[in-house]
Structure formats: C-alpha cells, structure tokens
Amino acid sequence: CSYLLPSTTPNLGGLLVDRGDTRPFEQPLPINTQPKRLALGNSFAIGVKEDGTVWSWGSQSCGRLGTGAMWEGTTNTPTQITGIADFVEVAAGSNHILALRKDGTVWSWGENKQGQLGYKEDGYAEAATSQYKAVYYSCQLTPKQIPDLKDVVSIGAGSSFSLALDKQGRVWGWGSNAH
Predict the structure, then answer these.
(1) What's this model's pTM, rounded to 2 decimal places?
(2) Distance, CA of 167 to CA of 100 (rounded, Å)
(3) 49-80 burial: b if 16+ Cβ within 10 Å, else e
(4) Distance CA 46, CA 56 (A)
(5) Predicted pLDDT at 35
(6) What are the distances in angstroms from CA 133 to CA 19, 61, 62?
(7) What's the DSSP call for residue 71?
(8) 32 backbone φψ class: left, alpha, beta (φ>0; ψ -120 to 50)
(9) Which of 49, 72, 108, 175 is buried most, with the most CB atoms less than 10 Å from its CB?
(10) pLDDT confidence band for 22 (50 / 70 / 90)
(11) CA-CA distance, 90 to 159, in Å (whole number)?
(12) First CA to last CA across the chain, in angstroms?
C-alpha cells in the first residue's frame, strides 16, 4: 500500500517491513478458520466448502483434480476429493494444489516438476509401447501431507512454487525460484 500512501511506512504488527525487520511476532498468528472457497489453476478449479470438504473440477492432467487419476478429460461438475477433511483454505499454481487443514498441516497434489509439492511425489509411469518409450511423470495423483510443515496459518501458490505462513510469522517457500 505504500505507493497509495507515500507518507506512511508499511508495517505489520509494528515491524518495519521496508527496513528488513525480521523479528518474530510477539504473539503467534491464529490459524485461519474461515474457509477460503476457491482457487483457480490452469484450466481447473479447487474449492473448500464450509464443512471442510475439498472439491475439484475442470481439466484433469497430472492428477491435479486429486481423484487418483492421471488423465480424466474434463469434469464440469465439482467432485469431492475423498479421504480428506477439515480443510479451510486452498491455493493453486498452474498445475499443483495446496490445501490447509484446520490443524495447521498442509497437503498438496498435482505436478511436481519443480518440487512445488514439498516432497517426492509418488509419480506415474507409462510403460513402453511399440511406438513410444516408457515415460515417468512427476505427479501426485491424490492429496498427501507435506512432512515437517506444521502450525501453518495461510498458504499461497504461484505457477511452479508454493508458500506457507506459520504461526510465528515465518514464510516458507519451495519449488521454482526462477524469479
């Protein structure tokens, strides 16, 4: 906001953001408990209902709909992702998804070419045929918890990277660092 209010110094809880102040917050941030309902990716959407269930629809590729399938075509109707519950927020990159659970854990699925899922994916392999060589896809077809990431209060995703904000005000990032 500083460009709108040039006479003020941007701050967050008294921290001078423009001066590189990195002191931890005195009070931990609360976990977001209000569902953020929708995130849009590359030809797909992910939503969280107030009951904490996660729903997906759009073009399936590399498991980004979270249903366990690699290629499904297009799903025009929101479909619940089974086996996961109690979520409050979702974020989508081009082809990957993050979901924040009420307990502060983060789950991810979809494409993992740049490490944007935060773990080594299960992957998807297609066997060789008479016309094509065997192919391995860096994909996670179903939601999986990111290990060792806890007490997260909010998440964000870009094209091929992921971000998380924890209770202490620390920002965690992983995936592509191209820019």
Answers:
(1) 0.80
(2) 13
(3) eeeebbbbbbbbbbbbbbbeebeeeebeeeee
(4) 4
(5) 59
(6) 54, 20, 18
(7) -
(8) beta
(9) 108
(10) low
(11) 15
(12) 22
